[in-house]
Please model this.
Amino acid sequence: MIAPGDQVLAAFSPLVPIIGTRSIYVLTSNYTLLSVTSISTPHVAGVIVLLKVVHPQWSPATIRSAMMTIADTIDNNGTTLRNQKTDLPVTPLDYGEGHVNPNKALNPGLIYNIDWQGYVDFLCDFSYNDTEMRAILR
Model:
């Protein structure tokens, strides 16, 4: 799953200069544009909180399913997502499930829910031995 992480307007400490100049002046702001991977984390966390507020009965697995089944793999122009550096179309290896879409996640249609026993049953289908199962399920 991918989320906004490039040139995101984010809250910023006014105690930290955002631009240093050669003069005696240092520019600070309560906000700045940031482009780092960790900027996408608050977006996804916010979507999770939104879904939990709207659907308090949903389990973590259901919330994850809602976000994954509705993720966008096309951009706002209706074309396949593209790599910003190469301008080539991206693949699922680049974007995972796709770009998180909070509005669609509120009413995703089909969602999958799984509990602890469901994971155990799923792993049993792989014919793991007792030692391997204990390592996974600890």
In short: The first strand starts at residue 8 and ends at 11. The CA atoms of residues 61 and 79 lie 30 Å apart. The two ends are 26 Å apart (CA to CA).
